[in-house]
Amino acid sequence: MNYHDYIWDLGGTLLDNYNMSTQAFVQTLAFFNLPSDHDAVYQKLKESTAIAVASFAPEQPQFLQKYQQNEAAKLAHPIWCLGTKEILTKIVASGSRNFLVSHRDQQVNQLLSRAGLLSYFTEVVTASNGFARKPSPESLLYLKEKYDISSGLVIGDRDLDKQAGQAAGFDTLLVDGRKNLLEIVT
Predict the structure, then answer these.
(1) Are 14 and 80 in contact (CB under 8 A)?
(2) How far apart are CA 49 and CA 181, in angstroms?
(3) Which residues of the chain have pLDDT under 50?
(4) What is this structure's pTM?
């Protein structure tokens, strides 16, 4: 392995959630009798949930809550990106460490636990930790200091992951979900 520490993003990197999230968002739009376009919703969700809500349901104060309920139901049966368990296993077996930084709440730990993946992470940082969202490097700097990380790679699927990693002084790698993570990271 080229690094001692690997800091992962969740959505779009380890968890193939954009399609499920888009389905939940379109379902929520229909609930509120709002028009939807699957591809347009998908693109906005890749930017952020807040941008998608502002774009498609700005006048619906209850939209976000209903969407989160629908998304949680979809995530009850998550789809993991190709090679997720294999790469996490390989990293730990080599004596290196995995960390995860997500803007989601403690639901992350439940997803990882149900999939048998939680034990592969030294620490999982979620919204519950109170750090600013990426591209702020705050959560990454916390991990860097707490675990004395000097050889780390931040792996994500969006430019904001790259920005946060670089601002924290780490190397970065963007993935797009098309290739097996085992092929890309090792």
Answers:
(1) yes
(2) 25
(3) none
(4) 0.89
